[in-house]
Amino acid sequence: MIVLIAFFCLGGLLFTTRLLMADAFSKEEAQHALYSLWLYKDIRAFDWGGFWYDTNRQVVWPFFHSWLGALFFLIFGVGYLPARLLSFLLFFATLLLMYAACCRFSEKLGWKIGALAALLALTSPLMLRFAVMNTLESLGAFLFMATFYVYSIYEERLLTYEYALLAALLGLAIFTNYLYAFLMLPAFIVMTLGKLGPIVCEVIVLRRKGESHAFPFVWWAYRKLIVLLVLALFVAGWFFTSAFSRKLLLLLQSIFRYSGGEPVANIWQSLAYYPQAIINHFTFSPWLGALILLSLFLPFLGLHFHHIGKLYTFIWTVLVLATLVLPAKAPQVIYIIAPFTFIVFAATVFYALEEHYQRLSAAFLLAVFLPALISLPTLAGQFLPARPGEKMSSVLDYFRREVRPRFPVAAQFNLQHLNPEGVSFHFWAWNAPVLSDPALGEEGMFRGARYFLAVKLDENSPYRAELLDDSASTWNSFLAEKLRQGWLREYSARRFEPLGLTAMIYEKQETAAR
């Protein structure tokens, strides 16, 4: 009960300080929100043809996340909070699955392992970061954890439909993120093939005894055939319905060319990247991170706790693929195995305490956890971040409030939290065109809009680090030239001192408007 109360308190604190007070969407968040918004509008209009079209044109990131996002918009309304609430709830669903899975490891220690693992996840900077963002990470980790939990239940059963459900969960990874599917599916294949050796040995023994030697292997193959068949249906349902060549090209590019991270200089940096990521990003304390990394080299725990061996297979398959196959590196690439690493570390702690070091348990706990206390201010900052006086969402609110409704607007700036996709989402209910696509060009935007939005960053603005390109400066120069020529007039301006920027609105002169 105390553990449950603690989790509710931490969850409520996270919801209040990180979710309710979050800034405007980052660029990636806004892209996912727009995908959900397309589908939301289709459903509201009962436009099923449009729904099918908007589903199939999501080829960079497949559609499953946007389907869920559209559902949340239908239930809670369109906004920043409903979009991010999906990730938040998936994060806590993952914690519950972690706890439930650990309870199956051991009757005596299972709940303790689950409680510690969930606590580590709830204090992980990487997991907390994506728990309050409208991105795919929380969904990917939930699917991987759910698939493992379902497999741990169904492994000893002989029912066919349960393996069809398992395959369906794996197939959803294809509809969520190509990269996660590339990491998850081989992990399950490796784990499954690892059981083939003992089964073959059992077949040989049974054959010598004159028993029905083929049954174990046939049943093993039959269940795996079911999984492969359902997965094949999922793959065919996505890739062969429309735009096959483009989807296949994006699949290959997302895996072998661009995986959303940073390139590394050489093989040694590549080999060291993800161990360093586990140490520095998985927990609030580098000391705990180092201990978690160390626990990944103790596979003998699989002999003591049921199903732990599978987690080692999943973790190391993903790490090897992410290290040796994916060209670009990023901590979020291995986000989907973070819950598994916390479970392995928690199992290591209680294995040591219960089985081998009972007399030294107090000293062991001190050695493990006391150095982590140095990093407690970092943990406090995760749950109680500094509250800024103003945010980029305030700039977007200013633009929407000041511009007269039912007139087209145009904007061209590209910062992490002030971007074309974010403008389009913020103005989603605007009864006029919102021109923010760079492909239109500056002159194209000028011809189609009545009001023009711009921002000017100070030299020492903290948001200069968020500039993704030079579109803001070129747009400002373009508007300044139109102002000098008399095509525009200054309509409104506001200074945002804490942000180090000035927001400006220009209006097209009547002669130019005609």
How would you sum up this structure, described in words?
The chain has 514 residues and is an alpha/beta fold. It folds into 2 domains: 2-382, no CATH class; 392-513, D-Maltodextrin-Binding Protein, domain 2 (3-Layer(aba) Sandwich), CATH 3.40.190. Helix content is 63%, strand content 6%. The protein contains 24 helices and 7 strands. It has helices at 2-19, 27-44, 48-56, 64-76, 80-103, 110-122, 125-131, 137-154, 160-174, 178-193, 196-209, 215-239, 244-256, 267-281, 286-295, 308-324, 338-356, 361-369, 376-383, 392-402, 420-426, 441-448, 471-484, 510-513; strands at 262-263, 328-329, 409-411, 434-435, 451-457, 488-496, 501-508. A 5-stranded mixed sheet has the order 4-3-5-7-6, with helices on both faces. It is globular. The termini are far apart.
Low-pLDDT segments = none
Total number of beta strands: 7
Largest β-sheet summary:
5 strands, mixed
* Amount of helix: 55-70%
Number of helical runs?
A: 24
Determine the structural class based on helices, strands and strand pairing: alpha/beta
Average per-residue pLDDT, rounded, comes to 84
Topology of helices and strands:
Layout: H1 2-19, H2 27-44, H3 48-56, H4 64-76, H5 80-103, H6 110-122, H7 125-131, H8 137-154, H9 160-174, H10 178-193, H11 196-209, H12 215-239, H13 244-256, E1 262-263, H14 267-281, H15 286-295, H16 308-324, E2 328-329, H17 338-356, H18 361-369, H19 376-383, H20 392-402, E3 409-411, H21 420-426, E4 434-435, H22 441-448, E5 451-457, H23 471-484, E6 488-496, E7 501-508, H24 510-513
Parallel strand pairs: 3-4, 3-5
Antiparallel strand pairs: 1-2, 5-7, 6-7
Helix pairs in contact: 2-3, 2-4, 2-21, 4-5, 5-6, 5-7, 5-8, 6-17, 8-9, 9-10, 9-12, 10-16, 11-12, 14-15, 14-16, 15-17, 16-17
